[in-house]
């Protein structure tokens, strides 16, 4: 399994530690605008039933995915993982009285997790151009491990390359390439590009099964939003 290069890891830790010292507990410390962070997590979670589910949040920052999850259900367990110690220490303060919420400081690709999770998400972690590794190889390694760990599926978001301007330090993913990576894992996937013009999300479901009679995914048929049209 590919590990994040030390040079890139140090750059990320230094960047967010400096922002945390400047902005404290704020979306600005993570490079987000207030409100958009919640929208991104809503997009990642909206295709999943969160009731009594276990959730892994990669690059969790302050763990504020819990603000979105808790609006949908109170019955869940959450593990946030991040390489930035300052962010995890703050997250532990914010959610110290929540027995269902836990955090670890570690590199997702390098750490050995001894359990499965129902849902795996990651928001904003693929937005910076790596210095010592190909970003697409890095992304695909995350996808493969997340898929192995997930019972229901995973959802990641990305900056899109369908833009007319890019900063030198940011990485804008091709939706077509990301979609192709998703199809290597499952045929039951969703690419979302309807919520922001310059970002998109990929949702990959673990359950590929369908009924031969109507060739409709069983997972889709079991969702409340499914209706018979024939």
TrEMBL record:
GO molecular function annotations of the record: methyltransferase activity
Domain of life: Bacteria
CDD domains listed in its UniProt record: AdoMet_MTases (cd02440)
Keyword Methyltransferase carried by entry: yes
GO biological process: methylation
SUPFAM superfamilies, per the entry: S-adenosyl-L-methionine-dependent methyltransferases (SSF53335)
UniProt keyword annotations, A-Z: Methyltransferase, Transferase
Ranges of residues in domain Methyltransferase: 55-135
Protein name as annotated: Class I SAM-dependent methyltransferase
Organism: Aliarcobacter butzleri
Upper taxonomic lineage: Bacteria, Pseudomonadati, Campylobacterota, Epsilonproteobacteria, Campylobacterales
């Amino acid at each position: 399994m590919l590990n994040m290069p030390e040079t890139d890891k140090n750059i990320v830790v230094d960047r967010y530690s400096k922002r945390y010292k400047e902005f404290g507990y704020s979306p600005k410390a993570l490079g987000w605008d207030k409100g958009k962070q919640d929208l991104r997590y809503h997009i990642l979670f909206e295709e999943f039933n969160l009731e009594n589910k276990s959730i892994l949040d990669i690059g969790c920052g302050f763990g504020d995915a819990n603000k979105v999850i808790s609006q949908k259900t109170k019955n869940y367990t959450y593990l946030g993982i991040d390489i930035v110690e300052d962010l995890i220490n703050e997250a532990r303060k914010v959610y110290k009285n929540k027995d269902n919420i836990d955090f670890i400081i570690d590199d997702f690709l390098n750490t050995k997790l001894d359990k499965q999770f129902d849902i795996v998400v990651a928001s904003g972690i693929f937005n910076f151009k790596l210095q010592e590794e190909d970003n697409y190889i890095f992304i695909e390694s995350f996808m493969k491990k997340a898929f192995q760990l997930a019972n229901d599926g995973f959802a990641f978001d990305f900056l899109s390359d369908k833009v007319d301007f890019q900063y030198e330090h940011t990485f804008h993913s091709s939706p077509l390439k990301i979609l192709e990576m998703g199809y290597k894992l499952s045929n039951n996937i969703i690419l979302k590009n309807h919520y922001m013009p310059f970002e998109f999300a990929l949702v990959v479901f673990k359950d590929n099964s369908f009924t031969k009679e109507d060739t409709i995914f069983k997972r889709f048929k079991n969702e409340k939003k499914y209706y018979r049209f024939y």
